[in-house]
Amino acid sequence: MPEIDQAADENTALFGKYELGRVLGCGAFAKVHYARNVQTGQSVAVKIINKKKLNGSGLAGNVKREISIMSRLHHPNIVRLHEVLATKTKIYFVMDIIRGGELFGKISKGRFSEDLSRKYFHQLISAVGYCHSRGVFHRDLKPENLLLDENGDLRVTDFGLSALRDQIRPDGLLHTLCGTPAYVAPEILSKKGYDGAKVDVWSCGVVLFVLVAGYLPFNDPNLMVMYKKIYKGEFRCPRWTSPELRRFLGRLLDTNPETRITVDDMIRDPWFRKEYKEIKFNEEDYASGSGIGIGSKEDRVMNLNAFDIISFSSGLDLSGLFGEAGKGDRLVTRKSPELVLETAEEAGGAAEMEVRWKKECGVELEGLNGRFRFEVEVHRLSADLTVVEVRRRGGDAVAFRSVWEERLKPLLLGGATTSSDSKVAQEQT
């Protein structure tokens, strides 16, 4: 079967850019197609999420979080997200296409040697350690979510259940119960909270055991019996494993998260150190293209990624899926973000308002005696375009309009188009 199937249901060039081909996989809320960039000829995978199915599932937040997470991960052993597109009914993740298939498919044909298992484990730990350094915890590491590329290298995928550091509660732990039963750490079963990095290490230990043994360390047809084995750490290494590997697996599958080996400590373990070479890379080489940008932390002006651009377009509005951004006004102007903020500051001063610079990308203006207050935020849409968002934060609506509508907005309208004209945002995607 050709990879580009002209009979495919949705085989029109998405946004004039991607030609869809055969289906690579299906799930409850999404399916993955092979696709080709008609402009460059590059092969990619396109994950298509049905918004209608997603709406009633309570998983909309997971999708937004997955976009946020994948856009910040740039590592040779992690599947790269190129960009996110959307229509009124669907969301499209454009990602690397990984032709070698799932690691699960390979291991189901027979166990691996210790040397080959070690190679894959080195790559897995490099990716997982990188995620943790970026405040990302995968929480569903298993062979089905580990792919092999055409060079035989491992690539981590499916960050749909991942957590970010800002989800940690005041007790310093995560509390959401998630993961695949045979791979979950015992502390998740205790429902008392857990360290995201330590549960990822446990799952990596289960993955390593599966690679060298060809079967799961904790398994039983009765789910509760299997959970009891996990909670007690009851497993046996097969006779063909080396003493060094058995000791290493014991440190990975330590039921006490406080004494379980860490990613940093692995480098000093004798089994792990054999043939170990640190994976060195330049993040920019693995950063996404035009779709998901990397903004400098030093920039006051926030650069928009593709998902933000989509949400700014009325024709491709995702606010109904992910929540309203707040009441206010929005326009696109050809003035630079810096000039917009200077103009807002000058207009506020002329109206005898108190002006406060926000930490990242805007200013807050407050009328005399607190009569009204509004915020102006700017986002760089492209080299030539800036999105300006204005939100009234209470007070006299008439006074707000007199400053925004009559003073500031006219100064910005030169070369601008309001957000009701979605063409600008669509062209950028």
Automatic annotation (TrEMBL):
It catalyses: L-seryl-[protein] + ATP = O-phospho-L-seryl-[protein] + ADP + H(+); L-threonyl-[protein] + ATP = O-phospho-L-threonyl-[protein] + ADP + H(+). InterPro entries: Kinase-like_dom_sf, NAF/FISL_domain, NAF_dom, Prot_kinase_dom, Protein_kinase_ATP_BS, Ser/Thr_kinase_AS. Its cofactor is Mn(2+). ATP binds at K47. The lineage of its organism: Eukaryota, Viridiplantae, Streptophyta, Embryophyta, Tracheophyta. Residues 18-272 form the Protein kinase domain. Its EC number is 2.7.11.1. Signal peptide: none annotated. One of its GO terms (biological process) is signal transduction. Keywords: ATP-binding, Kinase, Manganese, Nucleotide-binding, Serine/threonine-protein kinase, Transferase. This is non-specific serine/threonine protein kinase. It comes from the Eukaryota. Residues 299-323 form the NAF domain. Belongs to the protein kinase superfamily. CAMK Ser/Thr protein kinase family. SNF1 subfamily. CDD domains: CIPK_C. GO terms for molecular function: ATP binding; protein serine/threonine kinase activity.
